[in-house]
Specification:
- The structure is a single chain.
- The protein is mainly α and about 220 residues long.
- The protein is about 75% helix and about 0% strand.
- The chain is globular, with a radius of gyration of 18 Å.
Length: about 220
């Protein structure tokens, strides 16, 4: 489905690491945000990681709204659907760093993020070839093909994979043990899918802007 646009794995990595990671690093250093999470947890008498999981779900609901708007929009570009998507993706990825901190309480947030970043890069490069097409020009070809077969959008397909991991994270945050993959792997995969989702929004935006210029 070339109408969704294309990014190679290499181009996608350069674009998103430059756009997402600096903003995420700045969010993680905001002490007021950290104190706010702890204070909310104290007021509602819940563990802070449970509150973080609830907030993560809220960010995903906002992303679902934009994905739904994309499917119903006429033409390629709907600014109201794309606007703010990166903000919610960043917030969700930052909350996942907070949740990972629970498994490594002696580390700083920035230390946890640096460790997670290295894990994500390794995961993305290992699995990127599975998602891409044969010549590597479209890093999201797998999602495009599945969307075409199911009469969905690539966004819908990706969100299904993302939600699977977020659901497991919510169970863990509520105190349930995970029977198969550990929580570290679930959090890592969720952050990778959020990274890919940001790429989907960006390529959609690029195609829309190109269509606007040609019309």
């Amino acid at each position: 489905m070339s109408e969704w646009g294309k990014f190679s794995n290499e181009a996608l990595e350069v674009l998103l690491d430059g756009a997402l990671r600096p903003v995420e690093a700045a969010r993680l250093q905001e002490e007021e945000r950290q104190q706010s999470l702890v204070e909310v947890a104290r007021r509602v008498r819940l563990p802070w990681w449970t509150v973080a999981s609830v907030l993560l779900d809220a960010e995903l609901q906002e992303l679902h709204k934009r994905v739904t708007a994309l499917r119903s929009a006429e033409g390629y570009f709907a600014s109201e659907a794309v606007a703010g998507a990166f903000t919610h993706i960043v917030e969700a990825r930052v909350l996942l760093v907070w949740l990972r901190l629970r498994t490594t309480p002696d580390e700083s947030l920035c230390g946890v993020e640096a460790m997670m970043y290295e894990e994500e890069v390794s995961e993305r490069r290992a699995k990127g070839k599975d998602y891409a097409d044969f010549d590597g020009s479209n890093a999201m070809a797998n999602f495009d093909r599945n969307a075409e077969r199911q009469n969905l959008t690539p966004f819908n397909v990706l969100m299904v994979f993302l939600e699977k991991h977020v659901d497991s994270i919510a169970k863990w945050a509520a105190g349930q043990e995970l029977a198969t993959e550990g929580i570290e792997g679930r959090i890592k995969d969720a952050r990778v899918y959020l990274w890919l989702l940001a790429g989907m929004f960006q390529r959609y935006k690029n195609v829309g802007e190109s269509q606007s210029e040609e019309s």
